[in-house]
Specification:
By secondary structure, this protein is α+β, with helices and mostly antiparallel strands. Helix content is 55%, strand content 12%. The chain contains five helices and four strands.
């Protein structure tokens, strides 16, 4: 409460010209890759939200922006990528387990029709998918290392 009532003594620091230019570009409709080239450099990373290319902007510390308008600090980009990687791995696990179940059904169907070679093939596919799913489940169940103290975050 005391801080809220305290008058600000220093004049606000003006934004750097590059940041003012960034605000002008992104508030205009239809940011293009060429516009972003004037603000930073295209990097071999993709936007976790839309999958578009990212540009690294250096004013104010490393930041990232795609031409769709999504923007990230270095830390939020890493956090978002980690979230999307984990979601993709869980989706992959579900697909492996579904593929295993489907291969078992295909093996049973082939056996019921007297096609032993096809049944053996599908049983092997089911077995392989089960092994891969178990391995992925073990990886996903491992505890993620705890983050070091906040001083490490940029």
């Amino acid at each position: 409460m005391r801080l809220a009532r305290t008058a600000v003594r220093d004049a606000p620091v003006p934004a750097p010209p590059s940041m003012e230019k960034e605000v002008q570009i992104v508030t205009a409709n239809g940011t293009s890759p060429e516009d972003l080239d004037t603000l930073g450099q295209s990097v071999p990373l993709t936007c976790p939200e839309c999958g578009g290319s990212l540009w690294e902007l250096v004013s104010g510390g490393p930041r990232y922006r795609c031409y769709n308008g999504h923007a990230y600090s270095l830390t939020t980009l890493a956090d978002e990528q980690a979230i999307h990687v984990e979601a993709a791995l869980w989706a992959g696990l579900r697909r492996l387990e579904e593929s295993e179940r489907l291969a078992h059904r295909m093996a049973a169907h082939a056996r019921s029709r007297g096609n032993d070679r096809s049944a053996a093939y599908h049983a092997e596919v089911a077995h392989t998918n089960a092994r891969h799913a178990a391995m992925l489940r073990r990886l996903l169940s491992e505890k993620t290392p705890t983050a070091p103290d906040e001083a490490v975050h940029e």
